[in-house]
Amino acid sequence: MIRELLETTEFLEKKGFDNPEIGIILGTGLGKLVHELEIISEVSYNHIPGFPTATVEFHKGKLIFGKLEGKKVIVMEGRFHIYEGYSLFDVTFPVRIMKRLGIKKLLISNASGAINPEFKKGDLMLIDDHINLQGGSPLAFRGVEQLGTRFTDMSAPYDARTGALMEEVAKEHKFTLHKGVYASVVGPQLETRAEYRYLKIIGADAVGMSTVPEVIVANHLGIPVSAVSVLTDECDPNNLEPVNIQDILEMSAKAEPDMITLFKEVIKRLEY
């Protein structure tokens, strides 16, 4: 395990991934941020030792190093999910690599469904807390103590300072940024009416199939992390309409300019 982490880190350092300051994980339909980068180096996932390969057709599958708003960033253009058949260690392996390369902050985006009836599709939601319904933990493996504290505190998993910056940016640029609780499920199927009712009862404002494993590992490694959901559909169990992936991608594209503005402005203002 340690040897694999070292091998991957050394490979990327040789490819020019030189002390990135901020890591960014881009979710479904949210890849256009890479067009804002001054790209220094990029490598396809299937060329990186130890990396899983993105199998979802609308996830590009590249690790990109460059500059954004004057800061060195490493961007995952496409992420991994347990519904692709990967373990939780595989899904979070890139976060461990980004930490070893030097990141000091992690920003995550995802596409999710709105459970809270006051939240509308096309809105953004700052994740303030989460509910892990994926049936496992990325820290539940033998030898985890070699990489960080086994019993990681999760009383405040999301960085309040960066979250406050995001709220400030949204207010200045006059777009909606809710704050809420994100429930992470396995997928890839979407939820039933009964499941949406259950999610609302237990306190979820939005639901998706990612993010929580990466956030747990970021906390395990001591990386301040912030995450934002693009709400791509409204999950009212009493008026539920069929949703297909094309609808989700179209709504992601519609909201993406606000997400790009949010991340760029926050990166510009971040201090360590």
Automatic annotation (TrEMBL):
InterPro entries documented for this protein: Nucleoside_phosphorylase_d (IPR000845), Nucleoside_phosphorylase_sf (IPR035994), Purine_phosphorylase (IPR011268)
E.C. code: 2.4.2.1
Cellular component aspect of the GO annotation: cytoplasm
Keyword set includes Glycosyltransferase: yes
Pathway in which this enzyme or protein is active: Purine metabolism; purine nucleoside salvage
KW Transcription regulation (keyword) present: no
Keywords linked to the UniProt accession: Glycosyltransferase, Transferase
Span of domain Nucleoside phosphorylase: 21-268
GO molecular function annotations of the record: purine-nucleoside phosphorylase activity
Function according to Swiss-Prot or TrEMBL: The purine nucleoside phosphorylases catalyze the phosphorolytic breakdown of the N-glycosidic bond in the beta-(deoxy)ribonucleoside molecules, with the formation of the corresponding free purine bases and pentose-1-phosphate.
Protein family membership: Belongs to the PNP/MTAP phosphorylase family.
Record-given protein name: Purine nucleoside phosphorylase
